Amino acid sequence: MITLTGNITHYLFRNEDNGFSIAKIVLENMDEVIITGYYPELSKEVTYTFVCEETSHPKYGIQYKVVSFNKAEVQNKQGLISYLSSDLFTGIGPTRAKKIVDTLGDDAIKKILNDKTTLLNMGLNRLQIERFYKQLYDNQVVEQTLVSLYGFGLTSKMAMKLYSKYGSDALDVIKENPYRLIDDIEGIGFKRADQLAMTFGMNPTDSRRIEALLLFGIKTVSLQKGDTYIKDHQLVDAAKDMIDETIDENNLLEALKSLIDSDRIIKDKDKYYLESIYNSESSLANELKRLKTDIEAIDETEADNLVWLTEQKLGITYSEKQKEAIKSALSSSISVITGGPGTGKTTIIHGLLEIYAIKNDIDLELESASESILLIAPTGRAARRMQSVMSMKALTIHRALGYNYEGVFYYNEIIQLPHQLIIIDEASMIDIFLAENLFKAIKSGAQVVIVGDEDQLPSVGPGQILADIISSKFMPVIALKEIHRQAKNSGIIDLALKVNNQSVSDLDYESKEDIKFVSKGESGVLDIIIGTIDEALDMGYSLKEDIQVLIPMYKGPLGIDAVNLALQRRYADLTKKKITYGDKTYVIGDKVIQLSNNPEKGIMNGDIGIIKDISKDPNDQDILYIDFDDHVVTVSRAELDDINLAYAISIHKSQGSEYKVVIMPLVRGYQRMLRKELLYTGITRTKTHLTLVGDLSLIEKASKVLNEKRQTTLDEFLSTNKKEDKVLSPYDFL
Q1: Furthest CA-CA distance within the chain
Q2: How confident is the model at residue 156, as a pLDDT?
Q3: What pLDDT was estimated at residue 201?
Q4: What does the DSSP 8-state code read for residue 602?
Q5: Residue 60, SS3?
Q6: What pLDDT does 138 receive?
Q7: SS3 sequence of 345-399
Q8: Which pLDDT belongs to residue 551?
Q9: What is the DSSP letter of 708?
């Protein structure tokens, strides 16, 4: 941490809704620096001490993120006079302010707040004293409240969120019911609220605690599996797991009834939904219904002519099914194109873009094309792949929606995206929360094409958007099954299809030019991984861009962590500057992955980068400089929980990406994780060379084990004509 003492000179940015600010301060040595964070509008005349972390912004460069702040013990005399004579206070001009400071000293504010009669000899009458005291008190209460919140271990961002929500009553609200913070304040979960409650001495059998505990249990059971609801028997099991010596079943039943009565849990027959998930799923259905409108179908003869022109331009020949997909997308307000590798999804999108551009007189080679057409995908790598194939700008969904420093989307149901055609790739990865935000930001009348492979792993978050849309038969769906000529000889695609169709046998393990099967005991697997990487490097492939080891789990002798350590020893220069954090060491040149979204730094979950430098900040704290595709960010020691080595990554984290060389070890230690969908997703991440090494019998075994179907109701919502009303905040019922 870095401690900075100085005065704010001006604000570069300020969000009045949540207090997020970017300000320039002048330090005691007259240096100027930029501070960011969540704090009230502070007086420019007062000197503050800020506890900060050093960060880097792509536009503003080095900044300091405020963790906490307080008035400096010693104030600049002239600054204090300017503060007291400012517009904040009525009837206190420079002369009177100077007299107050000359008489009471640098701690004049503290003395006045302790005893307002100290103002009696300052030329103020009793009415003026009362007014001045109240104004001074009101201006101090914000800072005092925030400082008190810091004392409970809350970050400046969280403290400011609490103050923005509750004002000067924040402490009283927390003491009255800390568990309401779970619903009111993003980023506070049950464990943090429970810590606060125990700090304030709440009884463990308090009904407020039991209700929060039950909500937490339902959320945990539901979200761990990606379900949007749980059933009666699952609720009973979850409740039993939470019963301890202080809580009995009657407590839980009473809490459940209270939660249902207040709509914090939505009950529909034998289904129990968290209110937020129910709202998102039903709202998403309503947005999809809104976007489905009748549009004029493209004339058959015109369509055939446009397809022919596109074939000539792109030098390809479309199959009848591919032509059907293009015509369906052009004639529908919203439609789906789904299929596995080699079925031509990308070729169809390319043709669709060309024909749409011809019909609407758009030059795809000009940047202005992006004003009418939006190409988006859930991850940065998926968007970059889309852009390279389409030769047109593509964005992540978060970036397209204007995901900002505060984690808020600029585009929403009020300010909607201006585009007329929106193509969404890798749709299987999108959860209900992101989907709701995306589709409500699309204006009525726009054409939407949803593209994805329904057989891949579903989203990490709740829901199974693509699968539910397809099963609902709510909109036109073109399912591509035919493998095209250029892909028919691919061993990778052949194996992917056999895994997906559950038709793998030992006879299929025949190596080809693009796929290699290596049967090996567990002790020899790591040597094969290293040998394969060495061979790929000799062929000119890049360890960062082209080569990726995919493993289903983190722990174990051949888990992600152990393999990363072995590959780091092999390929990193451990003589360079390094930093040790827990059981991991990071060195300059290491390949690393971001494990969570960080809008302040402009990096997202799954982004892969290279450590470019390691240095010290002015307080001798370690700082890493990581290059995420030409976007360099600083990472402090405190932020290293969100970073991991990335020579090997999970198959889940690889979704939306494509690598020229993929190595997938298979050992019995992975067996509880291996499923058809997981194996299929890993195989289909490969573009050029795939190596499967280890116990090859696990390929067939995994292909016969299916993921448990998620419990979701988007398809049901889409199949009904009923439009669900938004449910109010739970606390509107109290």
Answers
A1: 100
A2: 65
A3: 79
A4: T
A5: coil
A6: 73
A7: HHHHHHHHHHHHHHHCCCCCCCHHHHHCEEEEECCHHHHHHHHHHHCCCEEEHHH
A8: 96
A9: P
Token reading at 394: 């593509």
What sign does the dihedral 119-122-125-129 (CA atoms) show?
negative
State the Cα–Cα distance between residues 96 and 121, nearest whole angstrom. 11
Tell me how many degrees the CA angle 50-56-62 measures, rounded to the nearest 5: 60
pLDDT of residue 442: 96
SS3 string, 155-222, reads CHHHHHHHHHHHHHHHHHHHHHCCCHHHHHCCCCCHHHHHHHHHHCCCCCCCHHHHHHHHHHHHHHHH
CA distances from 230 to 143, 215, 282, 292 (A): 44, 12, 16, 30
Q: How far is CA 705 from CA 389, 675, 680, in A?
A: 34, 5, 12
Residue type, 560: I
Segment-wise mean pLDDT, segments of 10 residues, the chain, 734 residues: 86 74 86 84 79 74 80 67 72 81 80 82 81 78 68 68 78 84 79 80 83 82 84 75 68 84 88 91 96 86 88 87 88 92 87 90 88 92 85 90 84 95 94 95 95 90 93 92 71 90 82 92 95 96 94 93 95 90 89 85 86 79 85 84 93 90 95 92 93 94 90 91 43 34
Which DSSP symbol is given to 442? B
| Cβ–Cβ < 8 Å for 710, 227 | yes
Residue given tokens 């230690």 in the structure block: 669
Closest of 591, 694, 600 to residue 646, by C-alpha: 591
Rounded CA-CA distance 565/558 in Å is 10
Edge-first strand listing for the sheet containing 265-268: 230-231, 271-274, 265-268
In 3D space, the residue among 546, 556, 573, 555 whose CA is nearest the CA of residue 663 turns out to be 546
For the chain, the helix, strand and coil percentages under 3-state DSSP, each to the nearest 5: 45, 20, 35
Closest CA to 149 of 167, 173, 170: 170
pLDDT at 721: 59
| Distances in whole angstroms, Cα of residue 293 to Cα of each of 438, 443, 617 | 18, 12, 57
> Which residues are CB-neighbours of 85 under 8 A, at least 6 positions away?
92, 93, 94, 96, 97
pTM: 0.74
CB atoms within 10 A of CB 105: 13
Residues forming beta bridges with residue 339, ordered by sequence position = 480
For residue 505, give both structure tokens: 């046998």
